[in-house]
Amino acid sequence: MKIFITGATGFIGRQLVATLAEHELRVLTRDVGRARDILGEGIQYLTDLNRLENFNDVDAVINLAGEPIVGRRWSDAQKHLLKHSRWDITSTLTGLIQQSDNPPAVFISGSAVGFYGNQGNQVVTEASLPVDDFAHEICATWEQLALEAASPQTRVCVVRTGVVLAQGGGALAKMLPPFRLGLGGPIGSGNQGISWIHMDDMIRLIHFLLGNPGCRGIYNACAPNPVSNRDFAGALGKALHRPALLPVPELALKLLLGEASTMVTEGQYVLPQRAEEAGFRFLFPQIDQALEAIFPD
């Protein structure tokens, strides 16, 4: 299979590429040298998407590109970057698919559970109505741009990803230093939901959607057992054999990150209803099980 991938050097992308070695991969990157160091040889690297006229010779497109949404204050410039790092490339990919006489059979495009906005303690599925906020604004347009590529020849799967858990990056990389020192704990009230997924299940789900012709539309990429921030902190402390009792004041995060702090002080309890209905089964459905696998004794 010939697969075109964006965001291949990111946290999820590099893990995904490692599992697709049997296929012919084409990767979009700004820095070929760095990408080759991360991903290796045997991959065709492309630096300018605008040099392509269509995707006639591509079987599948996987779109994982986007500026990380957490970690910086949301200035007007940062908001513009967060939106357009997702929207512009997705729009271009959709255009190339639409211009193809022999388009790819499948387009898998990223999104996030932030689509749903702050849902409090309500359980959320793909059918739930969103709360309108900045994260929803990003995701709603991002998804719509991808779904416009759908046709009788091309099925589109939009993957609303939760917090992806693995060593070496992502949310855990930011959490580990205080937890390893015994200074970790819940954020704010600790009641906000964390919809998480083990990296292995994240990669398996992408493969599942890639290989199942009946799959199309929206899929929540998160384990079937979301937890509160308090319970997540407790599970991480347990896995690291460290206490997890020191709360992080919500006010401190607001002072540090401004509006962006809502990404950790608010949350959702999201279920992967459509993935499970399609027959996908999680290797790591429980948070204790997932973290113990990431941090074995």
Automatic annotation (TrEMBL):
Occurrences of domain DUF1731 (ranges): 248-294
Entries under Gene3D superfamilies matching the protein: NAD(P)-binding Rossmann-like Domain (3.40.50.720)
Domain NAD-dependent epimerase/dehydratase, first and last residues per copy: 3-220
Family membership: Belongs to the NAD(P)-dependent epimerase/dehydratase family. SDR39U1 subfamily.
Protein name: TIGR01777 family oxidoreductase
Species this protein is from: Shewanella sedimentimangrovi
